[in-house]
């Protein structure tokens, strides 16, 4: 929504960069305008009225300059809608939320409505903080559904070669994004074919074809969940052809947590 003097939109901060002494440059996902660059002057001052809005993963209503000046909009006002405080109290969950934001930034377009992407990110952050589901489950579901929203939906209804609805020893070709039996398509590069199991395939189909409102409404045993994470992450890397710094940081925190827990168990 916009007026003659101001542009008003709801958006979430995907990235913040400190500039000069008190300013920040923000990458904001706006529901109405997609990915936009915003200068928040004075956002680092203690008495700045919109300082809370000018931090990563803050969802706010923004009042901006009506048009860009160069590459940037300028903040006039902002009011917080959600800060996701539960995530800010858990470093690993917060790191995973930052990875979600980095993923969104990689696929969002400038000046194009991003309502579905915004809803997907907000739901993912809410799930991390409030649903008490395994982080690995939320991560895989978020990644896979995001790829679908960005136009990289895999074909999972049947084997792409023989048409069998429930493929024999199912695998996903992460380059072509197709499901097939392990023995079908043998001429393909074997490194592109990631093995699934019955439960991880069912979870993938739920994520891709199911109701978005019930995206995280499933359970998996540990081995099936690991398999789901492996196939989705490899599919994501193959389709987007890049790595993500926030994901590396999240994995380093998880490794530290696991080592710490193992050490505590040995000392009991």
Describe this structure in words.
The protein is of the alpha+beta class and 268 residues long. It has helices at residues 85-88, 91-107, 115-130, 135-149, 198-209, 222-240, 245-267, and strands at residues 7-19, 23-30, 34-40, 59-64, 73-82, 170-173, 178-181, 193-195. The protein has seven helices and eight strands; from the N terminus they run βββββααααβββααα. Helix 2 (91-107) packs antiparallel against helix 3, helix 2 packs parallel to helix 4 and helix 5 packs across helix 6. The model has no long low-confidence stretch (mean pLDDT 92).
Notable traits:
single chain, 7 helices, 40% helix, 268 residues
Count of individual helical segments: 7
Shape: elongated
Low-confidence stretches: none
- Strand-and-helix sequence, N→C? EEEEEHHHHEEEHHH
How many strand elements? 8
Structure class: alpha+beta
Determine the mean pLDDT. Answer: 92
Relative helix content:
25-40%
Strand content: 15-25%
Query: Major beta sheet, specifics?
Result: 5 strands, mixed, barrel
Report the span from N to C terminus.
59 Å
Radius of gyration: 21 Å
Name the strands of the widest sheet in spatial order: 1-2-3-5-4
